[in-house]
Amino acid sequence: MIPEIPPQLLAAASDAPLALLMLWMVHVLRRDLMARPEPPAAPAPPVSSARDDLAEFKLEVARTYVPLSLIRDLDSRLSLHLVRIEEKLDEVSRAATAAAAISGQVVTQRKVGFSARAEGETRA
């Protein structure tokens, strides 16, 4: 007589070959992956070339996306501000020299601003 098999056991027995097939496929894939030689690592670009590339990109963005009139306007505004700062520094220097002269202290003349820097670069 044929013993009565519970349906859960029958279902598990019918799924066993499929589960074994899946395990075997995973095993074969892992083995093939482990046997495959690894590709050589791509050399990392040097930092200096990355900086140069970034600088070129910024320059390209400035050329293509910012109108030349805005760049000139910004340049003139910055130049005017720098000239005002230089004038204020010259005024402070003159005031300090005058105050030192009144008090009787000896003060060596130092030039401040862009003209002094330009003269210093020509001497060096």
Task: Please outline the helices and strands.
Blueprint: H1 7-35, H2 47-65, H3 68-103, H4 114-123
Q: Helical proportion?
A: over 70%
Rg, please?
Answer: 40 Å
SSE string, helix = H, strand = E?
HHHH
Number of helices: 4
Find the structural class using helix and strand composition: mainly alpha
Major β-sheet profile? none
Binned strand content: under 5%
Shape: rod-shaped
Distance between the termini: 113 Å
- Let me know the average pLDDT: 82
Oligomeric state of this protein: single chain
Number of strands: 0
Note poorly predicted spans: none
Write up what this structure looks like.
There is one protein chain. By secondary structure, the protein is an all-alpha fold. The chain has four helices and no strands. It has helices at 7-35, 47-65, 68-103, 114-123. The longest helix is centred in the last third of the chain and has 36 residues, at 68-103.
Short structural description:
With 124 residues, this protein is an all-alpha fold.
Keywords:
mainly alpha; 76% helix; 124 residues; 0% strand; rod-shaped
